[in-house]
Each structure stands twice: as structure tokens, then as C-alpha cells.
Amino acid sequence: TGAGSVAARPGAVYAGRLQLRAASTAATARAQLRWYDATGTEIAVDRVSGYAIADGAAGWTSYAVSGLAPARAASVALAADLTVTTPGQTHDVARPSLTVATAAAGAVRGPLRTVGNKVVDADGQVVVLRGFNRSGQYDQARPANLTSDDVGRIASWGANVVRVTLGEALWLPGCPQYDASYAAAVDDDVRWITSRGMVAVLDLQYSAPTCDSAALNPLADAGSLTFWQQVAARYKSNPLVAFDVYNEPNHVTAEQWRDGGTVQSVAGRSYRGVGMKALYDAVRSTGAQNLVLVGTLDYAAAWPSTGPLAGASNVVYAVHAYNCDRPSACTNGTGSAYLLDRFAAAGTTVPIMVSEFGWPTGGAPQAYAFDDGVIAYAEAQGWGWAAWDWSRDGRCDADTWFSVIAPGTCGAGGTQEPAVAGQPILVGLTRNR
Question: Going by C-beta distance under 8 Å and a sequence separation of 6 or more, which residues neighbour residue 224?
Fold first, then answer.
């Protein structure tokens, strides 16, 4: 292919593709991006590896890899990396390509509102929200490594939205989980996100009908109304804040989803669940006209027959897509269409956002296929999307728990390169530029 490497632009996204074919004996292979500084020394901490699958003699096998050029990168090489156990093997390489795109997104201009099935900005231009969940704040005020720098890394990937997962038991006095510093921590989140021109979606992830039931309960509860009255009043003047009123309603009817009703908490206690219309009304009672997200039925995996909410405005309906826990076994990455087809009809009249999706093992080949498929489907419909998740625990030392960051690359001097699961996300975010 000529020179061993080409000039690199720090901060840009590089996407490589190639094909491999074994002459006789198959080998596990993957594509790689290798970055070099001005002296020609590899920046080894930021080497990016794509999914690993075997090539073969029967035909060509395609490989893909994407990465973010480190600040010190002067050049980049696209490599084919093979695990060969016997000497003398021959493997052919064909059709290598390397493309480059700008990573950083332009600032979103709020306030946001809905027009038909689209979200538009202050200028009336259509905005597609693409980004990440930042998990962990539903049960602690300051999860590991949730800092301004961490949010800056999200922005460097090109995101224009960050969904922040909250828990009412930490916000509202009365339960042992209450943390007087929690509101200040959320203030920090909002400032870090919106000051960079991204939208902060404040999501009620955990309700707490009783102090022993702070979790993903079937519905919100009476305390959730107080939570939203306080949260909406606190942030309504920020045009880049949106409110996701309840994460994943589950084990309820479509009528209960809308209007509430008696349900059982995860602790086995009966309580009066609050429906989505009352939560929406609680937000609007403060005068807040910010964008509101409403999680759909059955863990946000089914469109409710009672939707959309009557009389509601500036509402986006939230969809979650996971192929590994409900309803199928974790066997392949091709199941995104059947998860999302069920929302296509509603999406012709109301805005839809895939506000969570992911694959539990971030380094698996299936993770690439699944995340790529969800993004492609959402883009074809004009829907926004937010991957689960940026960093479960603030580290990147293992390819597990939906991690989108490659192991080891957020250490000292690391760029936080994408894991296999994160590579189609990184490329998808270049649409925000």
C-alpha cells in the first residue's frame, strides 16, 4: 500500500477497513490503528484494535477499526494483526482504506423544541442528539472519575448530548441514602456538559417509593413528583437541559404507564405508582418549557397503546435497545432491527430517541455489529441516540459491562480510545460536526 504510515491530525477520527484471506490455514485476525509521534516512536498506550475473528481460505473476511488521533500523533498506520500458531502461513491483504473525519461537535443552540417528529434548535434547524449515558450517579453523588475532564473527553469524541442517571433517594431528604451534597454534584454535571455546548439530559433512573426500594421500580412514586418539581425549577433556565422523567417503566399496563396505579416495588411493597402524564405535569408546573423525554413501556422496549401523552408538548419518547438480557440470549449482534421496528410507526408523528443501547462485553465482535446496527437504524429514521455507557466506574481496565473505552487507554497519557463496542459510536458521532 505504499508508505508504512500517513500523516495524522490530532483529535481527528480515523476509520480503517481491510480484507484478509488465508492461503490455507485460518488465523484469528483484527485490524489495528497504530499512532506514531514526530520521532517515529509508536504511542503504544493508544494502539486501537478492532474486533477479532478468524479469516479463512474460502473467501475474503472484512475487518474494521476506528480511533481518535492522540495529541502527540504525527502519523498513523493501518495494520493487519494476526495470531499465528504455526510458521510458514500466508495471509493475503486486500482493499485497505483509511478515512478521516473531524471529531468535535459544534455547540447545540438551545432552547430545543419539537416540531412534528423532529427536535429543532433556537434557529429552527433540526438537531439530532447523539452521545452517551454517564452512569453511576443513581446511587452515589460523585461516581469514580466523573469530573470536568471526563466530560471533556466525551466532548472530544464528538458527542452533543450526555444523559446523567439520577436517583431520587439521594436528592430528597428522608431516607438514609440522602446526600446533602447531591444537588451540588448535579450542578457540576450540568455546568460541565452545557458549558461545552452539549445537552444535559437529567434522567430519573431510580425511584424510591420506600427507603429500602431505591432501584429500577415499575413506576415512579409520589416522591418523584417532588423530585421533578425541584429539579425542573432548579434547571429550567438552562436552555441545554432536558428532563427524562422516568427511565424504564416495567411490569405495568399501558394505562398504568400513562396514569399510574398500584404496583409492587422491588422490595415487595405495594405503592401508588405515578404515571408519565403526572411526571410531565410536575415538570411543566414549574414553568419549565425544556425538552422532556418519556421512557416507553416494558423497560422502554415497547410502544404503549396509550401513547403519545395527550396535551403534551416538547416531548421525545425514549427507547432502549438491548439484545442480551430481554428478550433473547446474548448470541449475536444482529438483533437491532426487531427491537426498533416496533417504534417505526410512532416515529412518523412523534420524536423518538434511542436513549440507551449497548452490548455487555465491550470487546466482543457482536458488540461492534450490534452498536453499528442500532446507530444505522436510528440514523435512517432521523432518531437521536445515546450509548450505554461512557464509563460505568470511571476506569477502562476491562472489556466488560458495556464499556465503550478500550482497556488501558485512559491511563496516564492515554487518549481514551474506543473499545470494539465504541468504534461504530465514534464514527457515528462524526455526523455531529
Answer: 168, 204, 207, 245, 246, 274, 279, 282
Q: In whole angstroms, what is the distance from residue 391 CA to residue 410 CA?
A: 11
> Is 284 strand, coil or helix?
helix
pTM for this one? 0.95
C-alpha cell at 38: 514526530
Query: 240 near 272, Cβ under 8 Å?
Result: no
Tell me, what amino acid is at 28? Answer: T
Which cell goes with 246?
422516568
Give the Cα-Cα-Cα angle 422, 427, 429 (nearest 5 degrees).
90
Is 263 within 8 Å of 218 (Cβ atoms)? Answer: yes
- pLDDT level of residue 144 (50, 70, 90 thresholds): confident
| pLDDT tens-place string over residues 239-264 | 999 999 999 999 999 999 999 999 99
Q: Which helix (H) or strand (E) holds 231?
A: helix 222-235
Q: Contact, 326 vs 356, CB < 8 A?
A: no
Contacts of 191 (CB under 8 A, 6+ apart): none
Angle between helices 182-194 and 222-235 (to 10 degrees): 50
CA–CA separation, 339 vs 244, rounded Å?
A: 21
Q: Are 289 and 236 in contact (CB under 8 A)?
A: yes
Q: How many CB atoms lie within 10 A of CB 55?
A: 24
Better-scored residue on pLDDT, 395 or 342:
342
Q: Is the pLDDT of residue 1 over 70?
A: no
Q: What is the pLDDT of residues 298-307, one digit of tens each?
A: 999 999 999 9
